[in-house]
Amino acid sequence: MTPQAPVYERAADDAWLTAVYYRFHAWSGRRPFWAGLFTLLGGIPIVYFPYADMRLGNVTIAMATTTGSGSLIIGVLLVTLGLTLWFQQGVRVFAGVAAILLALVSLPVSNLGGFFVGFIFAMVGGALALSWAPGIPADEEAGAAGAAGRAQAPRIGPQGVPAPYGTETEYATETTAHADGGRNSAG
């Protein structure tokens, strides 16, 4: 061993950490993980700020308002929607729309949506939930592509240019050129 190229020996404890990482990656890949995380994180500041107080020496500054119960309801619902996105992917459209509506309602109800932090997180989480679509597993994708590929495989012409299908003509005739907006040879 030289000081220029140190050799790091892998500990036996790293194997379980790697297994946990790959399991988590596989789990989060089958669901709208980031949508749930952003929605869940959006509910935390909405709940926190109306009930938080800050102490500066002997002076206590509190943001307690009459809308504390509304903030609590909105924040708890956003956290619940975030967890729902993780564990019940089938309701992702409902959860996304509900998260966006709750984020919009949090602006006037709970201190400008948790001083815009919770509002932005909830809006992004709702948008991600609406845009997420479940993927097709690789083995099903290969089977579906094989069945569809046999039915209508593209023909390859010269120099790798796709050739027309059986229903298309290879060269435009005078009739098809005129029907497609081409020049009429008679006129």
TrEMBL record:
Keywords: Membrane, Transmembrane, Transmembrane helix. It comes from the Bacteria. Residues 147-187 are annotated as: Disordered. The chain crosses the membrane at residues 33-51, 63-86, 93-109, 115-133. InterPro entries: DUF6114 (IPR046096). This is Integral membrane protein. Residues 147-158, 167-179 have a biased composition (Low complexity). It comes from Streptomyces globosus.
